[in-house]
Amino acid sequence: MKRPPLLVLTCIAIFAATLSLTLMVDSTFAIGLPTVTFGVEDAQNPQQISTALQVLMLLTVLSMAPAILLMTTCFTRIVIVLGFIRQAMGTQNMPPTQIILGLSLFLSFFIMSPTLNKINEEALQPYLKEQISQADALEKGLAPLREFMFSQVREEELTLLTEITMKSEPFRQEDIPTMTLVPAFMLSELKRAFQMGFMIYIPFLVIDMIVASVLMSMGMMMLPPVIISMPFKLLLFVLVDGWTLVVGSLIKSFG
Question: 154-158 long-range CB contacts below 8 Å, 24 or more apart?
Answer without folding.
Answer: 154/184, 154/187, 154/188, 154/191, 157/184, 157/185, 157/187, 157/188, 157/191, 158/184, 158/188
